[in-house]
Amino acid sequence: MPLTISPQSQSHQPGIEKVMKPLAVHIRPDYRGSGKLTNRKALITGGDSGIGRSAALHFAREGADVAIIYLEEHEDAQETVRPIKNEGRKAIAIPGDVASSTFCNEAVKQTVEALGGLDIVVNNAGVQYVSEDLTDITDEVWQHHMDVNINGYFYITRAALPHLKKGATIISTSSINAFSGNKSLVAYTTTKAAEMGFTRALALQLADKGIRVNAVAPGPVWTPLQPASWGPVDPQAVAELGSDTPMGRCGEPAELGPAYVYLASEDSSFMTGQTLHVNGGKIING
Length: 286
Ligand code: NAD
Ligand code: MG
Known about the structure:
The protein is an alpha/beta fold.
């Protein structure tokens, strides 16, 4: 799925899908579901766009009902809800801030009521702010990374756990940066590594309950996060996204969704505490 990306920028996070040039692809038109998630109930944070939308559309095609949480991108959220309903599945979109434990508790409650249960939790909502120098990172920017990327994963998971039964799965979207580091994203990299620790420790805690916890560590993927984080600093860097991977390109969101299907489904029944590296060929240790 090679992409030609124009230099571009979006002024603030979260970014939005419809002004991306080119538009991203979230599921291959020829992706066939085979009932791997029939009647499962999924909650995906940041499910309105990008990687979260891809997971949502793949889950629905595999037979799941899906709730998405998003911050404020109402149009993107509805563009995700529509194709899920077209698959004949239930879909709800819940706007709010995952940095608030009160909101996370409410959102999980709303999901369980609307879908009739919860089997799959995808912690995926995230922010990243570029800074070339650690001394330029303000307390507020540092804290915001921690609030959304770490606390959000904890609050949603804590609220979800009482509803999860044997066979349930939890998936964290981490990042290649947790493994390789990124000199321009120290705060973000810190949170993505914390998510790996969270994933591994929780996997051990829940193993004997039959609840599996795994992570996906994407490389560069064409999502609104890219023009909204790198764009204001360097629009040309957006155009060159992924050129440093062995495949020489970034991924489409559609290339991520199937990894979430695998981790959410019975296909990965002997895997917990592990990470799938969907990154264009970078060899990762750990
Ligand atoms: P995206 O902008 O489509 O998704 C991020 C989502 O997070 C947004 O849709 C937004 O609704 C949500 N969000 C942000 N702040 C929030 C808040 N306070 N409360 C609730 N929701 C909030 O971009 P994406 O790239 O698909 O990002 C999804 C995940 O993938 C993130 O965790 C990101 O770190 C990770 N990731 C992305 C890439 C990439 O190259 N795009 C690479 C590695 C990891
Ligand atoms: Mg979005």
